[in-house]
Design brief:
The protein has 243 residues and is mostly helical. The protein has two domains: 2-38 and 147-242, no CATH class; 41-141. The protein has helices at 2-7, 13-58, 63-71, 78-88, 94-105, 108-123, 127-178, 188-213, 216-219, 223-242. The relative contact order is 0.14.
Length: 243
């Protein structure tokens, strides 16, 4: 039955084209997601790392020794990346190692912290107090960011599921129920028009969801695939119910 259903889409070239493009574009959409997950892991681990660094500096260790000690206990990917960068400080200067670490994290939070830390070291400022204040500030910032992301992510996923799957499936079910092809209804033109309508609607819905989350450029890679799924659920429900 599944193969007969898939074979019935041979007269939908737009859907097949979008499907091929959508699967091809997955290669460009997955790396930004993985990079963002990696960056957020580093940023969420940053406050506890700064707090531990403050305690270690307060115990009498220098900033370089404190960093080397805390890099061994910090969670991945923050700890291993810092260890790798500090190993380079034997060849280069410590300031260059901090700059290199900030660049490798690709996180604006870490880059600001490392810049402030370099400035504090140059001016001989009290590092323990500065590190503790930075820890508390970024802990509050990350709490707010995580809360906002959790709330908006639920709304964004709901928009995508409703527009790309729920609505096309429901309309396809009704069309197949009241105008079944097995009873001789000729609605091929109607199906083609509405499938394109749902494809455009799903593209708009996915774009709006991405804009809400502040990740529109990343989510645009998945637009063709969601358009394909919208057309598939509409036409598939119509054909399965209508025969």
């Amino acid at each position: 039955m599944l193969f007969r259903l898939l074979e019935s889409f041979n007269n939908q070239p737009m859907m097949l084209f979008l499907g091929v493009v959508g699967f091809a574009m997955l290669g460009g959409g997955i790396p930004p997601i993985r990079e963002r997950i990696r960056r957020r892991k580093i940023e969420n681990a940053l406050p506890s790392f700064l707090e531990a660094l403050s305690d270690t500096v307060g115990a009498g260790l220098g900033i370089q020794e404190a960093m080397q000690q805390q890099a061994k206990t910090a969670p991945a990917p923050l700890g291993p990346l810092l260890q790798e960068t500090l190993a380079e400080s034997h060849v280069n200067s410590f300031d260059a190692a901090l700059s290199s670490f900030a660049t490798k994290t690709r996180s604006s939070q870490v880059q600001r912290v490392m810049h402030l830390l370099e400035t504090a070291i140059d001016q001989g400022a009290p590092l323990q107090e500065i590190l503790m204040n930075l820890s508390m500030d970024y802990e509050r910032l990350n709490d707010l960011m995580n809360k906002r992301e959790t709330e908006l992510q639920g709304s964004g996923i709901l928009i995508i599921l409703f527009i790309c799957i729920g609505l096309p499936g429901l309309i396809g079910f009704l069309v197949g129920l009241f105008t079944p092809g097995s009873k001789g209804f000729q609605i091929d033109g109607f199906l083609s028009t509405f499938s394109l309508f749902f494809a455009v609607a799903s593209a708009i819905g996915v774009t709006v969801s991405g804009r809400m989350l502040g990740r529109m450029r990343d989510i645009m890679w998945f637009v063709p695939l969601w358009m394909t799924m919208s057309m598939f659920f509409f036409l598939g429900a119509t054909k399965m119910i209508g025969g």
